[in-house]
Amino acid sequence: MFREKGFNATSMRDLADAVGIEAASLYNHIKSKNEILESICFAVANRYNSNMDEIEAGNQKPIIKLETLLRFHIQQMTNNYEEVYVSDREWKHLDEPYLSNFHNQRRTYRKRFASVIDEGIRRNEIRKIDSPTAVLIILHAISGIESWHRSTARISAQELEDNMVMIMIDGLRKQ
Fold first, then answer.
1. Tens of pLDDT along 6-54?
2. In angstroms, rounded to a whole number, what is the distance separating the alpha carbons of residues 38 and 164?
3. Could you tell me the pTM of the whole model?
4. Which of 48, 59, 77, 160 lies at a 20 to 30 A Cα distance from 138?
């Protein structure tokens, strides 16, 4: 419902109706719709951060780390679309201190992502590029998978992933 209507336009009554219980009964299970949003946002953030921890701990070349990151992001958008979409677009409605925490996690994650690109530049595997800009372009391209979900005649998730990785990695790879 948060994806379809947006967080602000979704009421507790809407949520209760969606799960087939009375709105008053819903309060026996959750305190507020903010609690649901917190759960969604931080579950997604934890998956992304855990994946980044594994990638940073590995001994792969930076270009391989970057490809692994891209594939993970694409798979999250194809396999966990609802959660990722809500986390990416509705996090601004979190209450404090969750809002600041989540915002800091996003900023830190993007810096970590950029450092993978910077490492590739230093090792002469990736073209010299402004890494924060590259991260923004990559993440925005991946968020565009939303249109793939709405398409009636679409390629498979694997074809989509392979095409996106080829385009982005080859665009960054130093020749």
1. 899 988 888 888 888 887 778 878 888 999 999 999 999 999 999 999 9
2. 30
3. 0.88
4. 59
What phi and psi, each to the nearest 5 degrees, are found at residue 95? Answer: -85, 155
63 contacts 126 by C-beta, under 8 angstroms: yes
Using 50 as the pLDDT threshold, list the residues of the chain that sit under it. Answer: none
- In this structure, what CATH number is given to the domain that contains residue 15? 1.10.10.60
Check whether residue 108 and residue 145 sit in a common domain: yes
153 and 165 Cβ atoms separated by less than 8 Å: no
Domain carrying residue 163? 33-172
